[in-house]
Amino acid sequence: MVRPLGFLVGLGFITALIFAIFTTPLKNEPNAAYSFVKHPRHLELASDGLMPHWDLAQLQRGMQVYKEVCSACHSLNLVAFRNIQDLGYTEGQVKTFAKGFQVPSINPDTGEPATRDGLPSDYFPAPYANDVAARAANNNALPPDLSLITKAREGGKDYVYSLLTGYQNPPANLPKELRPGTGLHYNPYFPNLNLAMAKPLSDGQVTYADGTKATVDQMAKDVTAFLVWTAEPKLVKRVQVGWAVIGFLLIFTVLTYLSYRNIWADKKH
Amino acid sequence: MSFPWAKQYEPQQPLMKWLDEKLPLPRLVYNAIGAGYPVPRNLNYFWNFGVLAGAALVIQIVTGIVLAMHYAANAGVAFNSVEHIMRDVNAGWFIRYAHMNGASMFFIVVYLHIFRGLYYGSYKAPREMVWLLGVVIFLLMMATAFMGYVLPWGQMSFWGAQVITGFFSAIPIVGEPIRQWLLGGFAPDNAALNRFFSLHYLLPFVIAGVIILHIWALHIPGSNNPTGIEVKDEQDTVPFHPYYTAKDGFGVGVFLLVFAALTFFTPNLLGHADNYIPANPLSTPAHIVPEWYFWPFYAILRAFTFNFLWIDAKLWGVIAMFAAIALLFFLPWLDSSPVKSSTYRPLYRIFFWVLVADVVLLAICGKMPAEQPWVILSQIGSIYYFAHFLIILPIVSRIERPLPMPNSITEAVLAKHADDKSAATA
Amino acid sequence: MASETESSAGIEDGVRRRDFINIAAVSFAGVGAVAVVLPLVNQMNPSADVLALSSTEIDISAIGEGQAIKTSWRKQPVFVRNLTAAEIAEANSVPMSDLREPQTLAERTKPGKENWLITLGVCTHLGCVPLGAAEGENRGDFGGYFCPCHGSHYDTAARIRKGPAPTNLVVPPYEFTSDTVVTIG
After folding, report:
1. CB of B386 within 8 A of CB of B326?
2. pLDDT tens digit string along A152-176?
3. Which of B79, B132, B302, B308 to mutate to test the interface with A (most CBs of A within 10 A)?
4. Pick the catalytic residue: C23, C150, C173, C181?
5. Which of B62, B87, B246 faces C40 most closely, judged by CB atoms?
6. Which residue has the higher pLDDT, B184 or A267?
7. For labeling, which of A256, B107, B329, C153 is most exposed (least CB within 10 Å)?
């Protein structure tokens, strides 16, 4: 009974699928943008690979770029001032750094919204009070929070680095409908080709304390390295612990294999 | 257990004797996974995956209970509470990544376990009940994994919940009310997140319960083996402990090595970048993809693009996707061949490997965007999937002429060793 | 005979080596299990963000003589009291032998700032919040704090004098960062 019924059900599905095959066009809708989008360029960082470490000087430079450039529009909601001790700052430096920020608070006497000096336990304050304010100030485009950006985009750090360095004039053969409209900027690394963010970096925009030359490429690398850290502050520790675990498990696995061979030594199987 | 030569539990110490009289739990364990369970001596490494699936469930339950101590199931804070675990909770990143990749490991070993059963005919009499309970476990796992993926409340969580609950709206008339009932609203939000969390915590324990039934049902006929020939006498078996406990120990070692490599070195390999963006009901990701273990079924769902008869394409897809899993319940009766192992089924063996290739093809199609050539490939893949189980298998089991089989497991083992020896001398 | 002893010795040797490897494998599993339990236990300890809140700054400039405020440190109430001269004199006049936990007022305050009594507002009996910090609350038989849960009376130096509490109200670690700002923790 099962088999004849199954046969009929199977034929039903197969007929529906055969009709589907013959009614679905074999050609995709042409997507002109696709041929202009570029694959992100690879960015090599100290935190890459199986032997990662943090390049603290680079992370500090990157944080400077974030603070002086990106933070005008982008929040960094998941990072607290106390976290930047990981970047090689002392407790005192963190306190001073935090004090340089005004964080939202309330007036203790009136209860009105107010601001106060930042404490190490505070988080980087957002540039806009809410999404509506952020959109209103940015031509209806919402600048995303950057805390997780290198994990939240296809292509990760390579994408962020390529986007920051990828602003250029539209190619001559770019069709009219793909050309940037008002308030949009051409960037072949952006999936839509045109994004609301204007070219954020220009040579010499920040002055590095360590004397590194602040080229666009250098700043893009530094801020991307910093954003890799903000996305996963435990990355280096994770890989280091990983090696210890793998080492232990290798010995364990060899021992269990020997034990297995021993126990089975007198049994043919 | 039924084999008369199974070792009997004999407690030595007075305490164990006392316990055996009052609550014979040690006896139960001894007979289930101890020396009291005789197992065919010729099991290969593919028989490790049952124990590994159990290990994966334990890992998921332990890490999950710990995560629940820090997670907040509220649409406003869920995303940040997961990041709180990743950044501030002691060893939180390890526990969260272990849970995330543990789900993938669970599905990897379960898929291998299922295909082992398909290749060696473990679903056939007298083990139909073992297979049926296994399919129930598989369904529960899929439900649990889906709801777990919603909890971080990222973009893929939200839109996954939207799409999956959307299946129900394909049902005529009652569909939309059912969807609203499932979500507790008109779109995934707090109510849905909270109930998914509740059920995500509950279902693993239901799975554990069904696993006990699965093992119980297995112990009635005893384990299958690569020859598919039933155990005839004591020579054919070895006690589970220490023989298979030792072998499973080695299996656990290899399993943990793979698991650790994933968790510590590429924890986000099997995830999706969009799930690190907080859920936004106003913006759909460019391309919604479920977790990899759902890809083959997602491909079947999307393969139906034509309103056929009085059923529209969407409903066809939903029915077909559920049917793709539900037909597994009928597998023991679709395949009528008395021979279990593919070793002695030359024709079935070919179709088995075609099925493996087909499921891999469907998985790739499920991952890819709904564009050509993936649409037509998923349609062809789906045709083979249904044809394999519902048409080819019943026909093959009729027309196939099995290869000559040994008389017993022991005979097969000795023949193999004789071959090895003659090969070595030659 | 000789061959028999030889073979039995061989078996014995084999058994021992086999046991060693099995024991080693099982012990490794045990060590691994313990190593995994450690993070699973440690995760219940206070997390980094909770620890980061472990110091609180308090502005005491607005607290007049004889007044007290209730603030919070590590999510626990803290009493900050500006003692009057009479309260200081009363605290200093109590003989040590009358005290359940003998401590002078000087030991419970900072040198030169004896009028600032800073204690946790957590009764050392079972953790209720004692009364007496706010204006008009019952300050107990000894003019300090009074815990309404089980009737513990604290004196003007917040030392236990009567009732079930075993010890004085706890003085948290703190420092005067300036004349008007105290950092607790």
Report:
1. no
2. 999 999 999 999 999 999 988 888 8
3. B308
4. C150
5. B62
6. B184
7. B329
Chain C: give the shortest CA distance to residue B201, in Å. Answer: 18
Which H/E stretch holds residue C154?
strand C152-155
| Cross-strand partners of C80 | C69, C118
What integer pLDDT is reported at residue B321 of this predicted model? 93
Please compute the mean of the pLDDT values over residues C55-73 and round it to a whole number: 87
Q: What is the ipTM of this complex?
A: 0.93
What does pLDDT average to over chain A?
92
Asked if the Cβ–Cβ distance from A239 to B274 is below 8 Å, we say no
Q: Which of B84, B87, B95 sits opposite C39 (nearest CB)?
A: B95
pLDDT digit string, tens, across residues A50-95: 999 999 999 999 999 999 999 999 999 999 999 999 999 999 999 9
pLDDT tens-digit map of A234-267: 999 999 999 999 999 999 999 999 999 999 988 8
Q: In whole angstroms, what is the distance from residue B35 CA to residue B239 CA?
A: 5
Residue found by looking up tokens 């980087």 in the block:
A124
Do B51 and B240 meet the contact criterion of CB atoms below 8 Å apart? no
Q: Do C43 and B70 touch (CB under 8 A)?
A: yes
CA B238/CA B42 separation, integer angstroms:
9
What is residue B264's predicted lDDT score, i.e. its pLDDT? 97
pLDDT higher than threshold 90 for residue A26: no
Task: State yes or no: is C150 an active-site residue.
Answer: yes
* Alpha-carbon distance C53 to nearest alpha carbon in chain A (angstroms): 6
User: Which residue intervals of B69-169 are DSSP H helices?
Assistant: 78-87, 92-119, 128-150, 155-166
3-state SS class at B220: coil
Q: Which two tokens stand for residue B132?
A: 């049926």
Q: Residue B391: which of A7, A17, A154 has the nearest Cβ?
A: A7
User: Closest Cα to residue B320, out of B377, B379, B392?
Assistant: B379
Bridge partners (DSSP) of residue A116 are A103
Nearest to B264 among A191, A238, A267 (CB): A238
Coil, strand or helix: which one is B308? Answer: strand
Q: Nearest residue of C to residue A259 by CA position?
A: C22
A contact chains, 3+ CB pairs < 8 A: B, C
**Catalytic residues of B, which ones?**
219, 223, 247-248, 291
Contact at CB, B92 and C47, closer than 8 angstroms: yes
Whether B94 and C39 lie within 8 Å, measured CB to CB: yes
CB-CB under 8 Å, B380 with A14: no
CB A61 within 8 A of CB A208: yes
Distance from CA of B207 to the nearest CA of C (A): 23
3-state SS of chain A is CHHHHHHHHHHHHHHHHHHHHHHCCCCCCCCHHHHCCCCCCCCCCCCCCCCCCCCHHHHHHHHHHHHHCHHHCCCCCCCEHHHHHHHCCCHHHHHHHHHCCEEEEECCCCCCEEEEECCCCCECCCCCCCHHHHHHHCCCCCCCCCCCCCCCCCCHHHHHHHHHHCCCCCCCCCCHHHCCCCCCEECCCCCCCEECCCCCCCCCCCCCCCCCCCCHHHHHHHHHHHHHHHHCCCHHHHHHHHHHHHHHHHHHHHHHHHHHHHHCCCCCC
Q: Which residues pair with C57 in a beta bridge?
A: C183
Check residue B277 and report its DSSP letter. Answer: S
Interface contact flag, B277 A7, Cβ < 8 Å: no
Q: What does the alpha-carbon distance between residue B318 and residue B298 come to, in Å, rounded to a whole number? A: 10
| Residue A28 to residue B371, Cβ atoms within 8 A | yes
